[in-house]
Structures are given as structure tokens and as C-alpha cells.
Amino acid sequence: MKKALSKTEEAAKKGAQVVCLQELYRTRYFPQEEHKKVEHLAETIPGESTQAFSLLAKKHKITIIVPLFEKGSDGKCYNSAVTIGENGKILGVYRKVHIPNDPLFYEKNYFEPGNSGYEVYKTPNACISVLICYDQWFPEPARINALKGADIIFYPTAIGTVKGYKSPDGDWHDAWKTVQRAHAIANGVHVAAVNRVGEEEQLKFWGGSFVCDSFGKVLKEASSEKEEVLIAKLDIGKNKRIQEGWGFFENRRPDTYKPLTENHA
Q1: pLDDT recorded at residue 128
Q2: What is the strand order of the sheet 127-130 is part of?
Q3: Bridge partners of residue 212, in order along the sequence
Q4: CA–CA separation, 10 vs 226, rounded Å?
């Protein structure tokens, strides 16, 4: 927490108006183990993290997105992100909806699927929304948030490669970057992907946090090997030009989309 507060303060002093931390910022990525006693690591909202970052948000008049391991009032645990406004008050909490359950990513053993819905928060500089890691592979949440008026979608993330494993699928990192740039283009919004970096047990997180504009152009990209505070200046006005110029919203056909809400499993 002390390190995250220090890095956030550094970002604020460099001019950041919205700051986003990585997924599960306060712990190691414990879901790479199938079963581990971690309930003691979960915290409430409001709680220690929100108290500390609320003071910082109010001090610098910035918006801060804090992804954490949440112990809900219902007694269940969630992979969540709380957004704190420049007045230090909580704007909302997003609970990760799509939960993976793959080797070394055993999240269903730890987190309940999110039940908070998709929300857009109005800040003095832009309307923002938050999705978390695995959500970034699904087009529907990005589209919903864009339709709700999001200018920027933030994706706090913890993703990397398995040491010694060569995937037959191809380059995971390239696919990760491509799919998020595609969300930006298809919805005419800016995207900020904030990834963990470094090695933990069998995983090597590839870092590479990046910000792209509303036509998928990467504006800034962080290191793949070391922690970094990445600052990007955005032209939010470009969103409307893309959306209107390419007709991505105007020419939608919701009357044909019913199969999206049917269970095909």
C-alpha cells in the first residue's frame, strides 16, 4: 500500500488527473494456486485502502481507481475496483464479472462473479468506466460502457506467461494488446490497460501497460520488465469524431442481437 500511494503521488505530481492501479494491487497474484487460505487478505469497502487513497485523491484533486480483493457485506469475496473521486468520496465499485478458471489462473476458487453491473463515472475531465482483466477479452462490456457514455475504459490487469510453456495458440501478449485496441476502435473510446509486472512463482507478468486512443493508436506504453508510472495526455474530443464518422453507434442493429443474451453453452 505504501508503494502504491507513493507511485500515485508521483503520478499526480506529473499531472495525472485519473490514476489507475493494477489488478489486486495489494497482494501477490494468489489465484495461481488452486486452493490457498487467503480470506485474511480481503478488505471491506470502505476500508483501509479506500481510507488511504481517499485522502490522496482529495489532497491532489484527482480520481483514483483502486483494484482490490474485496470482502463484501454479503460475506462473499470479489475481485473489485473502487473508483474514488477528487473530493475523496467513493464514486462506485465494480466487481469483476467474467471469472477465469485456467491452470495458474484459478480465480473461480476465490472470487464470486460480479453483481454490481457496468457503470460509468463522471469526473471533471472525462466519463470513465472500469473493467477488470479477463473482462477485456469480451466485447460486450466495452460496448455497454461506451453506450453509457464512457470516454475512457480502464482495464486493471494481472496477466502474463507461464514460465517454460510455449502456447500453440500464438503470442498471448500480442492478442491481449490487439483485442483491447479493437475495443477502442469498435466503440470510439480511449482504453487504458494497467498490467502487473515481474515474476511470481510460475508466472512472468509481461507488464506493457498502455494507453490507446479511440482509433486504436498506442499513445504510451510501459516497460515489460520494470515498474513504471505512465502518463498519457488524451484528446477525448476524438471519440465523437470516430463514433460519428464511422457510424459505429448510429448503424447498430440491436433488433438482430437477441442471440447474444441466449445461453449457448
Answers
A1: 98
A2: 120-122, 127-130, 152-157, 190-195, 210-212, 218-221
A3: 191, 218
A4: 16
pLDDT tens by residue, 193-202: 999 999 999 9
Using CA atoms in the order 238, 148, 229, 219, what is the torsion angle rounded to 10 degrees?
Answer: -20
- One-letter identity of residue 195: N
**Is 265 a residue whose pLDDT tops 80?**
no
Cell numbers standing for residue 185: 476502435
* 57-89: pLDDT as tens digits: 999 999 999 999 999 999 999 999 999 999 999
**Cα 28–31–37 angle (5° rounding)?**
85
CB contact at 8 A, 88 and 54: yes
Q: How many domains does the chain have?
A: 1
CATH number, domain of 90, equals 3.60.110.10
Residues 6+ apart with CB under 8 A from 120: 127, 128, 129, 145, 148, 149, 150
| Residue 154 included in any domain | yes
pTM for the full model? Answer: 0.97
State the residue for C-alpha cell 460486450: 140
pLDDT for res 158: 98
Range of the domain at 91: 2-250
Is 259 inside any structural domain? no
Residue 224 placed within a domain: yes
Report the catalytic residues. Answer: 23, 96, 133
Q: How far separated are the first and last CA of the chain, in Å rounded? A: 40
